[in-house]
Design goal:
The structure holds two protein chains of two kinds. Chain A has two domains: 6-96, 2-Layer Sandwich (Gyrase A, domain 2), CATH 3.30.1360.40; 102-248, Cyclophilin-like (Cyclophilin, Beta Barrel). Chain A is 21% helix and 29% strand. Chain A is built from five helices and 14 strands. In chain A, the strands form three sheets. In chain A, strands 5-12-9-10-7-6-13 form a seven-stranded mixed β-barrel. In chain A, strand 6 and strand 7 form a beta hairpin. Chain A starts with 11 loop residues before the first strand and ends with a strand. Chain B is an alpha+beta fold. Chain B is built from five helices and 21 strands. Chain B has helices spanning 35-44, 167-177, 198-206, 277-281, 296-317, and strands spanning 2-7, 12-15, 53-57, 62-65, 69-77, 80-82, 85-86, 93-95, 100-103, 108-116, 150-152, 185-189, 209-211, 219-223, 238-239, 244-246, 254-256, 263-264, 268-272, 288-289, 291-293. An eight-stranded mixed beta sheet of chain B has the order 20-13-14-17-16-19-12-21. A six-stranded antiparallel beta sheet of chain B has the order 7-6-9-4-1-11, with no helix packed on it. A five-stranded antiparallel beta sheet of chain B has the order 2-3-10-5-8. Chain B is globular. The chains are: A alpha+beta, B alpha+beta. At the A-B interface, strand 2, strand 3 and strand 4 of A face strand 15, strand 19 and helix 5 of B.
Chain lengths: 250, 322
């Protein structure tokens, strides 16, 4: 499908205080809705509305931060009314919009062992063998729904129904950078050593965030992800520059 | 041509008006906690308002200027002295080479802002010089100042002494710099206001909440009567803003501040009006805050009025830049 069908979804524009606003398409995690959200976020960014400083796609909403003093208003018009009016115009114009090229990023992962200390336990909780869990995690192409929590931290899904686990009862105080984890039919990758409550099934040698890189974040919302199992030896010898990214117009 | 850190102080970090445009990549906006004081410090020395200032918390650093400079302080009164002479806030001060700036005892507020005419010459990362300590980037080496740090101030032509500010400018400066600290902080209802019981809504607006000891640049953790939800169920993680008051399952509200995460998944009961965020940023852990509710229109009008006063100040100071 090359067009995102906005008409099929109702939306709501709601202020979040006096300098932010949210455009919401329900409260579900759904690939089609997220595709719409990412397309809308791109559209809002490229419209470069006066006063808008940040546009954030999340699972099913786009957050827009603006500087109230810099938003042009009509006579007697409130700032939030003016920004709502412009955003509504962009949402309404979205239906014929074609999607931007999809990037596919391959993420090498060394599963289990020291890199994925929760793999066996998570597999048992899903009534699967560890190998079967890895097969399911690497099988289908997945989607980056949003980036959040820490710089460059992706929420990736939706995983196979058999990989539906709640988060760990007690979060770890420190998770090593690069850890690949699952919960709630999603996968995350921890870019920095931070606390974390998801099940650690493996680790990638890729650096998801590096402030000194020209593009500090490896992934973007809307990217397609393919996890690929690699051995411990491959993990140890992985050259940082070796990231496989393919761009394709869809 | 340098600035030398003799003592680092408790927590001194460089901040500007924030790192905008990268929140979609999970990069916090950061920036000055008290944006107004930051702007006033810059205005007082003739800088652009987005120039970095040093945000100084509670116990200030001891700094030696190894060259002449023009500086100004705004925000909290942390007992600043220059060569042991008390230093006025909100006024450009000529600093001779070799002079030592230090801080004694806090009098009011929590965060002071130090501006140097011409700036600190910090590198910009993702469009900002703000320090994000948790991520280890921005500002000076991505961290708070340490003893022995030496900053090379930009070798700009020494700024001619600023003309004394007019009476009108001084009046505007003082009116902006002295918000009524005793007034309640103004809130507008949050996205999930209605997820909370009427009792919780009333508690928030009638009870004082203590700013907890774990409060920092990321968030202010409030302590008081827990805020009960009227309905259960999760919400999806989505955008949050500076001043978003979210309520985790324990019912204790957290107000998200400058180093907040870009998104959050707890219900947002309220939003601190942007115009009152500078006041909140000056509240010390252990102090109690009160809240009142205003409409979104009122919050917007108060903010625009603040903007107009700042505009009038710029005019009165006769500072022109692009």
């Amino acid at each position: 499908m090359s067009a995102v069908s906005r008409e099929r979804y109702s939306y709501q524009i709601t202020p979040i205080g006096d300098q932010s606003i949210s455009i919401e398409f329900g409260a579900v995690i759904d690939v089609e809705i997220n595709r719409l959200v990412c397309a809308l976020a791109r559209r809002i960014e490229s419209a470069a509305l006066a006063g808008v400083v940040d546009v954030l796609p999340s699972f099913s909403a786009v957050g827009v931060h603006y500087l109230a003093a810099e938003v042009p208003t009509g006579p007697g018009e409130r700032v939030h009314a003016a920004i709502t009016r412009r955003l509504r115009g962009l949402v309404e114009a979205l239906e014929s919009e074609s999607q931007a090229a999809t990037r596919t990023v391959e993420i090498p992962v060394c599963y289990g062992g020291e890199h994925g200390p929760d793999l066996e336990e998570a597999a048992q909780a899903c009534s699967l063998s560890a190998q079967r869990l890895v097969d399911l995690h690497t099988r289908a192409p997945l989607r980056v729904f949003m980036i959040g929590f820490t710089p460059g931290h992706p929420y990736i899904g939706l995983l196979d129904e058999q990989l539906d686990l709640p988060r760990r009862a007690s979060p770890r105080t420190v998770v090593p950078a690069g850890s690949v984890a699952i919960a709630n039919r999603q996968s995350v990758i921890y870019p920095l050593a931070t606390p974390g409550g998801w099940h650690l099934i493996g680790r990638t040698p890729l650096r998801l965030f590096d402030a000194q890189r020209e593009q500090p974040c490896l992934l973007q919302p809307g990217d397609e992800i393919r996890f690929r199992a690699v051995s411990g030896a491959e993990f140890d010898a992985w050259p940082q520059a070796a990231v496989r990214i393919e761009e394709s117009a869809s | 041509m340098s600035l030398e850190v003799i003592k680092p102080g408790l927590f001194s970090v460089f901040q500007d008006l924030g790192r905008h445009g990268a929140q979609k990549l999970g990069v916090p906006a950061s920036g000055a906690m008290d944006e107004l004081a930051h702007r006033l410090a810059n205005l007082a020395v003739g800088n652009a308002e987005n120039e970095a200032t040093l945000e100084i918390m509670l116990m200030g650093p001891t700094l030696r200027f190894n060259r002449p400079a023009t500086i100004a302080l705004a925000g909290a009164d942390l007992g600043a002295t220059l060569n042991e002479q008390p230093l006025a806030l909100l006024a450009p001060i000529a600093v001779p080479a070799g002079a030592v700036l230090q801080f004694a005892k806090r009098k009011t507020g929590l965060r002071a802002y130090l501006a140097v005419a011409g700036g600190f010459g910090l590198p910009s990362l993702l469009g900002s010089t703000s320090t994000y300590v948790r991520g280890g980037f921005g500002g000076f080496q991505g961290r708070a100042l340490r003893k022995g740090d030496v900053l090379n101030l930009p070798c700009r032509a020494e700024r001619a002494a600023l003309p004394p500010a007019s009476a009108a400018a001084l009046r505007l400066l003082r009116s902006l710099a002295q918000p009524d600290a005793a007034e309640p902080l103004r809130l507008v209802t949050g996205r999930e206001w209605k997820y909370f019981s009427v009792v919780a809504q009333k508690l928030l607006l009638s009870t004082g909440y203590r700013v907890g000891p774990q409060s920092d640049r990321m968030g202010y953790r409030l302590e008081g009567p827990p805020l009960e939800r009227a309905c259960t169920g999760d919400i999806l993680s989505s955008a949050v803003a500076f001043g978003t008051m979210q309520v985790p399952p324990n019912g204790m509200p957290i107000v998200l501040m400058a180093d907040r995460q870009a998104s959050g998944g707890y219900p947002r009961i309220a939003q601190v009006a942007s115009v009152d965020l500078p006041r909140l940023a000056q509240v010390m852990p252990g102090e109690t805050v009160h809240f009142s509710l205003i409409s979104l229109n009122q919050a917007e009008e108060l903010l625009l009025e603040r903007g107009r006063t700042l505009g009038a100040l710029r005019e009165a100071l006769d500072i022109k830049w692009k």
